[in-house]
Design a protein that fits this description.
It is built from 5 helices and no strands. The chain has 144 residues and is mainly α.
Length: 144
C-alpha cells in the first residue's frame, strides 16, 4: 500500500494473463470432451433435469458476471472524490470466475454423457462472457 492507502494498480500484463488463462481453460475443457471416450447417455434415461438446472444457473452466473462489471464501473469515483472506490482487481477476478462457471457446467454435462448440443451452449455462454469482460472492457481508461 502506498501512503494514500490505495493498493498499487495491477499491471496490464497480469490482467491479460488471468483472462487468457481462463479462455485457454475453456478451450481445454472442450478439447478434453472431444477426445475423451465417454459413452453417450441413452436418450430415454432421465428427464434432463440436470441439464435444465445447469443451463439456468449458467445463464444466471453469466448475467451476474456482467453485472459485476457494470456495477463496479458505475461506482468508480474520480481521484480525490469522497466515496467508496471498489477494488477493481478483486471485482475482475470475481467476474472472471463467475464467467467461467458455465464452461465448468458444460464439462460436467459432457462427462455425464450428454450430447454436444446440450453442453455447447454453456461453453458459448462462458466464452461470450469472458470476451465481454476482457481487460479493455472491464477497466476504465484511466485505470488501465
Amino acid at each position: 500500500m502506498n501512503p494514500e492507502g490505495k493498493a498499487p494498480p495491477i499491471p496490464d500484463l497480469m490482467r491479460w494473463v488471468f483472462w487468457f488463462a481462463l479462455i485457454s481453460a475453456i478451450g481445454l475443457y472442450f478439447f478434453f470432451l472431444q477426445i475423451s471416450d465417454i459413452s453417450p447417455k441413452p436418450s430415454a434415461e432421465g428427464d434432463g433435469m440436470l441439464k435444465k438446472v445447469l443451463l439456468f444457473v449458467g445463464l444466471v452466473l453469466m448475467v451476474v458476471s456482467l453485472g459485476v462489471k457494470h456495477f463496479v464501473r458505475h461506482r468508480m469515483r474520480p481521484a480525490g472524490e469522497a466515496g467508496i472506490t471498489p477494488n477493481l482487481f478483486a471485482a475482475y477476478i470475481m467476474a472472471l470466475a463467475l464467467g467461467e462457471a458455465p464452461a465448468i457446467f458444460g464439462l460436467v454435462l459432457g462427462f455425464q454423457g450428454e450430447p454436444m448440443k446440450d453442453y455447447l451452449p454453456l461453453f458459448v455462454m462462458a466464452l461470450v462472457t469472458l470476451v465481454l469482460i476482457a481487460p479493455p472492457f472491464f477497466f476504465p481508461k484511466e485505470e488501465a
